[in-house]
Amino acid sequence: MRRGVHKPPEPDDPLCCCEYVDRKGGRSHVAACCCDCEDLDEACDRWLKREAQKPDSLSRVADSVADRLRVPWLKGAKRVDLSLLPPLVLLPVLLRIAALHVLLGVVVLTALPGMVLWYYYFTHRKKGRTLFFLSLALFSLAYMYFLFVTEIVPRGDVTSAQLATVTTGVILTLISLVRTKRGPGYVRPHPSDTHSTVTYHGPLPDKDHLNGARHQVVIANRGAALEHAANGEAVEAGPQQTDSKRKNWCPWCKLVRPPRAGHCRICSACVQRLDHHCVWINSCVGRANHRSFLMTLLLFLLTSLYGISLVLRTVCPRQNVLFALLYCPGVYSQYSSALCFTCAWYSSMVTGGLLHLLLLQVINVSYNVTEREARLALRDKTARTLLWGLVIDTGVYSQGFRHNWAHFLTMADHLEQSSSPAFTELV
């Protein structure tokens, strides 16, 4: 492997579909994935010479591999996130292994949630973004639908109307997910709190996906923001104080946040009426997408429950649907039936987890409290808990069940969105 010199791209020479700008600012090609890799050369040399590796050598090699894993695309090759690959490979393999025997099914279906929870705590502790859970959710939906069409429908027990219902549910779920992914409602700097704005038309260093894009750096006036915060001492505590707003200075984004807004350290941005960062959609849930988020959960649960019932009626025709998951004799005598039965168990586990999430969301909306506000109130011991902690009432914004839902359903959908944190630097 030859060590070459990275040459920056010429501004008038556009990238072809197989070229890209690497993390060091040099122009490279997808075919040269193993060429001019100084980090890998250095690590191999030290390993051959039996010398100790540098503390950051393995991380540099991993960054190089992640940077060079690309697919051709218009105006430059796009990077492939490594977190997308495990669900695409492990999920079908594990489910097919679980369908071989009932004991293997118990082991796999017990270990699979454990691995997902471990990965969640691993990424959540590091406050990093990952596409693992989004790809797992989308591929699970696609794979379950594929097995339903290829294994259940040909048996003749599913009518055309039932197939159309499941297909419509899947399509509506994806449409609602796309609406949810449009953005949670990022907080933009207020003109009165902005000192100056600088616009760059050239590429920024170490950001290969920003080639030729325009970047704005907003420099906020902290003195003005602190002055506004001092003048707005009234806190929105209920319906009598809806006009009084407390301006909250964010030390990370360097801007003034409206009431009930919060900063997400995973997205590195402030979100209006921040509820929580959902790993299943790889985005925050805020004022702009909270309703569509609940709609996505509801559509998915209805489609999943209906699909599971159709599968169980096909593979366990003599059993009641409510008890078929617990007792279905002879289902492992045929591999196709065992595979569908295993997928029904997997879908039931996912449905149960999302049903719990939907229940918590409905309770929070009924009390006009966000998940972030509930956690802060529990930490400060200012909340009232009911039903073993399932209900958390802060007593701040609640105006009654009907008014709380009316307020939630009439929240503005089209909020002024700021640019994504990956394209805008707030200084």
From TrEMBL:
It is a multi-pass membrane protein. Its main location: Golgi. Residues 245-374 form the Palmitoyltransferase DHHC domain. It comes from the Eukaryota. The chain crosses the membrane at residues 93-119, 131-148, 160-178, 293-315, 335-360. It catalyses: L-cysteinyl-[protein] + hexadecanoyl-CoA = S-hexadecanoyl-L-cysteinyl-[protein] + CoA. It is an enzyme of class 2 (transferase). Coiled coil: none annotated. GO terms for cellular component: Golgi apparatus. The keyword ATP-binding does not apply. The DHHC domain is required for palmitoyltransferase activity. Belongs to the DHHC palmitoyltransferase family. PROSITE patterns: DHHC (PS50216). InterPro entries: Palmitoyltrfase_DHHC, PFA4/ZDH16/20/ERF2-like. Its EC number is 2.3.1.225. It is found in: Golgi apparatus, trans-Golgi network membrane. Keywords: Acyltransferase, Golgi apparatus, Lipoprotein, Membrane, Palmitate, Transferase, Transmembrane, Transmembrane helix. This is Palmitoyltransferase. The keyword Cell division does not apply. One of its GO terms (molecular function) is protein-cysteine S-palmitoyltransferase activity.
